[in-house]
Amino acid sequence: MSILNFRRRPAAPQGADLGSFLAGYSIEVMPRTAEKVEDFRELLPAGTRVYIAHIDGTPIDEMVATAARLRAEGFEPMPHFPARVIESRAQLAEWLAMYRGEADVRQGLILAGGVAEPRGEFHSSMQLLETGLFGDFERLHVAGHPEGSKDIDPDGSDANVSDALRWKQAFSERTDATMALATQFSFEPEPIIAWADRLAAEGIALPIHIGIAGPAKLQTLIKFAIACGVGPSVRVLQKRALDVTKLVLPYEPTDVLGALAAHKAAHPGFGIEAVHFFPLGGIRTCATWAAENGGAATRPARATA
Predict the structure, then answer these.
(1) String of b and e for 179-216 (b: at least 16 CB within 10 Å)?
(2) CA torsion sign, 257 to 262 to 265 to 270?
(3) Predicted local confidence at residue 151, as pLDDT
(4) What is the CATH number of the domain that holds 265?
(5) Alpha carbon distances (Å) from 182 to 62, 206, 301
(6) Domain contains 302
(7) Does any domain span residue 115?
(8) Torsion of CA 285, 290, 292, 296, to 10 degrees
(9) What does pTM read for this prediction?
(10) 54: domain range?
């Protein structure tokens, strides 16, 4: 079955190599989805960074076991640390000790977390970072929101998100860890480009690891987009859903990634450093698509903020 893209865009300029843009991509799993994969080495390039999503209610033992398995198979585990589900500084210290001791975890994604009410003393990623407990981590990623966040800014502005980004930029300047922004997924390149350019203009120099939804059924994407609070770009999916001839066809991120790759080729200083996949249509489906489009784990070294 042929795949129809959302809309035709001008051909990418010479040098806009999608494979190069995908180099060093990362991917996200949960313990329950990881259990379905017999051997990640059959799917992912060696050394791929694999985020481990910590959904509320997931036992820490399952998170650590998933990280240990990924490490043993030759990948770089990056577990989520959601502030609002961590009950205390002592619990955070215990989790970190487990991750270090059992899985040699050296990287983490520090988040506020999706639950409405904090379980304990933490309600923001900044509070977790201020504990100093991540001081020996090599890499710390924090959240970015190209289309804003209604959870953080209920009034529709981006005032709180912007304040947090300035704090994170300042924190990155006083820590030895390599830091980057890992973003929610979006479906349109134009808002992403505008957001990244705005950050640069405001002095936010953290490299961007742009969140992209992997290939999936349209109905699946719409469900996740609504649940995750994806912003205006969800209209791309809704418009496609109105066309019955396209409703049953799977979505591929070719257009959005092609446009971002073209922009990066034309503007080498553009702030996107890597692509992070949310494999909403399945890990195997996403990994296969990335491989077929030239994705590899190895990325040329570059300076980061």
Answers:
(1) bbbbbbbbbbbebbbebbeebeeeebebbbbbbbbbbb
(2) negative
(3) 59
(4) 3.20.20.220
(5) 23, 10, 19
(6) no
(7) yes
(8) -140
(9) 0.85
(10) 18-292
Which residues of the chain, if any, have pLDDT below 50?
1-15, 153, 242, 244-245, 298-305
Q: Quick one: pLDDT at residue 218? A: 76
Q: Is residue 6 part of a domain?
A: no
The Cα-based distances of 103 to 54, 198, 297 in angstroms read 16, 38, 20
Residue 13 has a pLDDT of 40
| C-alpha to C-alpha distances, 61 to 67, 78, 117, 213, nearest whole angstrom | 10, 15, 23, 28
Q: What pLDDT does 265 receive?
A: 95
Q: What is the pLDDT of residue 184?
A: 87
Q: What confidence score (pLDDT) does residue 129 get?
A: 97
Which helix (H) or strand (E) segment holds residue 27: the answer is: strand 26-29
Rg (CA), the chain: 19
Geometric angle at alpha carbon 79, from 174 and 93, rounded to 5°:
65
* Domain count for the chain: 1
What pLDDT is recorded for position 169?
95
Q: Has residue 11 been placed in a domain?
A: no
